[in-house]
């Protein structure tokens, strides 16, 4: 049996950081609209700077983290909600996930030559320039005994928010309005966003073409469009105040905010278990001159060192 995280003394020395109120859920009473305002605050800087990516990749990754935080907090599940994008652009792979308790992590893989070439021509690339053509998958993983729910769509649109909106309109037939931002501020990297979802009207019925509902949804998206990056990323501006600014005429109800946290779930015990699955030849091949095997967690960029002599293959 795997060592539970709280008993695992060999977890890496990564920041134990919680941002209270990182996600603020809300709904507009009597209207087919609910949403979440997401603000990662200082967590953005801590998550992004564990890696050594160029700024353009950090901006994309910060938006991906805000997106998974904003989507996961709408679901009832236990486990991890993940975004995975695989494309033919300079960012070949982007993975971000958020657990039911708000623990966030990500990794990105890049083709550095292709990225340099892109930045030569296009100093301010769009998310799409970075990702190219490919697909986006959203997965709810509730552990080995539960069925995984996964939806996959082709990448469409110039930015991550458009790609996610496209995902919901095609894969889930669910109207969403999504805004994402990430930038370097005086206080460090900051990311956030706003997700609006069109939900069934009161009584659980949504009549297509219901003019009042259509108008209410449209009004909410127009108000949401007035949101600025500066407001979302301003640590000193409370989330409830910001939501009130946007929706005070729409019978806004702000629900209990939820925390976000630094959330790598790697552990020495888990990686040792992976190593024990290799055979002797593979282990010898992985072993460095100093007699150690180094495994790096892609999510938190932590190097785990295992003396080769301590690893015995299960198959032997
Ligand atoms: Zn890790």
TrEMBL record:
Pfam families: HSP33. The keyword Secreted does not apply. Keywords: Chaperone, Cytoplasm, Disulfide bond, Redox-active center, Zinc. InterPro entries: Heat_shock_Hsp33, Heat_shock_Hsp33_C, Heat_shock_Hsp33_N. It comes from the Bacteria. This is Hsp33 family molecular chaperone HslO.
């Amino acid at each position: 049996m795997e060592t539970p995280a709280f008993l695992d003394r060999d977890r890496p020395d990564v920041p134990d950081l919680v941002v209270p109120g990182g996600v603020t859920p809300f709904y507009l009473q009597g209207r087919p609209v609910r949403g979440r305002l997401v603000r990662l605050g200082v967590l953005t800087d801590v998550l992004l700077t564990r890696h050594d990516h160029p700024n353009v990749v950090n901006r994309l990754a910060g938006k991906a983290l805000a997106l998974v935080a904003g989507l996961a907090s709408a679901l009832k599940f236990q486990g991890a909600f993940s975004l995975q994008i695989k494309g033919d652009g300079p960012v070949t792979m982007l993975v971000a996930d958020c657990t039911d308790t708000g623990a966030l992590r990500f990794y990105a893989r890049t083709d550095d030559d292709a990225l340099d070439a892109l930045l030569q021509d296009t100093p301010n690339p769009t998310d799409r320039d970075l990702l190219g053509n490919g697909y986006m998958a959203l997965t709810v993983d509730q552990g080995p005994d539960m069925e995984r729910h996964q939806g996959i769509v082709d990448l469409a649109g110039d930015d991550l928010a458009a790609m996610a909106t496209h995902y919901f309109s095609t894969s889930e037939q669910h109207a969403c309005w999504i805004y994402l931002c990430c930038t370097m501020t005086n206080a460090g990297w900051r990311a956030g966003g706003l997700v609006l979802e069109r939900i069934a009207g009161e009584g659980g019925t949504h009549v297509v073409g219901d003019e009042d509902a259509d108008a209410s949804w449209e009004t909410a998206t127009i108000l949401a469009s007035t949101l600025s990056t500066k407001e979302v990323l301003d640590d000193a501006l409370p989330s409830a105040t910001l939501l009130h600014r946007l929706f005070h005429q729409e019978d806004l109800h702000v629900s209990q905010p939820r925390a976000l946290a630094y959330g790598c779930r790697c552990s020495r015990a888990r990686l040792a278990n992976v190593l024990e699955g290799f055979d002797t030849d593979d282990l010898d091949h992985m072993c460095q001159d100093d007699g150690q095997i180094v495994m790096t967690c892609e999510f938190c960029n932590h190097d785990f060192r295992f003396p080769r002599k301590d690893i015995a293959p299960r198959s032997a």
